[in-house]
# Entry
Amino acid sequence: MKKTDLDFRSLVNTLVNIHNQTKLSAAKAINISLTVRNWMIGYYIREYEMGGTDRAEYGRKLLQTLSKELVSHNLKRMSERELRRYRLFYDTYPQIREALTPEFKLLLLSENRLGNWVANYRVIAQRTRKTDWLAGVQVVL
# Structure
């Protein structure tokens, strides 16, 4: 083993710096993932409101009903208020669509010309096991 000029204090400082840098990178990646997730939730809510086949059944109670259903699936931050915010986020920043990766674009109804969302989702799920989409963090949809 090669001798190095690294002393104990340098080792500690180096490891602290590595930790801080990777922690910062992870936080940025998580923020990107949450931004995409929230935008896509808003997108799907708006798409459903505009053309869902059974939307008349839910009407004004859509967000309330949707919130209860999502919470029953143990999803966090899915209150009626949060869903309203996600929809507003999508409405305010529709240009985020242009920044999405090709894999995420496959999940958008308007980009899915074949209408086979489930098949596209399976392709994406397989790809996420092999590659990281956002800043080195595996995205789980």
Notes: The chain has a mean pLDDT of 79. Residues 19 and 44 are 37 Å apart (CA to CA).
